[in-house]
């Protein structure tokens, strides 16, 4: 959901700086279908609007595979579209922390509480893993790159997020603003 907020903010900032949404079509991003495939895969393996994922097996391997699709897209576009470098660095940080934690993202209990994620905490009290989340602790690695940041519970779409997520969000916003202003 944070990525949706990033897109909406990017569009709003793009308009503030005199951009036009129609200019985005001039970006000519190659292999955009790879991003769609990565997102589809993540929607299938993580419980978003239900308690159980659609595909409940091989989550860690499929999660890493989704990053492979994303990095393929970034590789064919990053040299022409600079904001994608920021997206790539953020995605790489997320992949690093997920990789060293067996395909799971460590999340801070405090961040989950403050984001109002009671249902996630309840699920994690019954099982050590919820979707791709594991509670941050002594056995998790690179905790500083885990979901330790959060939007407070009173904020619309409150949730936890990582430094990598923040970089991806900023990169997406810059990408949209740059694209909207490309022919302005």
Structural overview:
With 184 residues, the protein is mainly alpha-helical. It has one domain. The chain has seven helices and five strands. The chain has helices spanning 2-16, 32-45, 59-77, 83-100, 109-114, 118-126, 163-181, and strands spanning 105-107, 129-130, 133-135, 149-150, 160-161. The strands form two sheets. The chain has a three-stranded mixed β-sheet. A hairpin with a 2-residue loop joins strand 2 (129-130) and strand 3 (133-135). Helix 2 (32-45) packs antiparallel against helix 3 and helix 3 (59-77) packs antiparallel against helix 4. The radius of gyration is 17 Å and the shape is globular. The two termini are 29 Å apart. 34% of the residues are buried.
């Amino acid at each position: 959901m944070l990525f949706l907020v990033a897109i909406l903010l990017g569009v709003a900032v793009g308009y503030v700086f005199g951009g036009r949404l129609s200019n985005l079509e001039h970006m000519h991003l190659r292999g955009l279908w790879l991003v769609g495939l990565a997102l589809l895969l993540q929607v299938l393996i993580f419980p978003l609007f239900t308690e159980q994922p659609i595909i409940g097996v091989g989550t860690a391997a499929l999660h890493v595979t989704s990053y492979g699709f994303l990095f393929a897209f970034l590789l064919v576009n990053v040299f022409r579209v600079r904001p994608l470098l920021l997206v790539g660095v953020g995605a790489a940080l997320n992949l690093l922390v997920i990789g060293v934690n067996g395909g799971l993202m460590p999340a801070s209990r405090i961040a989950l509480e403050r984001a109002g994620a009671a249902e996630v905490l309840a699920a994690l009290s019954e099982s050590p893993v919820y979707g791709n989340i594991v509670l941050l602790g002594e056995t998790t690695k690179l905790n500083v790159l885990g979901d330790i940041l959060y939007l407070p519970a009173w904020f619309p779409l409150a949730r936890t997020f990582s430094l990598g997520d923040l970089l991806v969000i900023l990169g997406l916003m810059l990408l949209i603003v740059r694209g909207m202003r490309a022919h302005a």
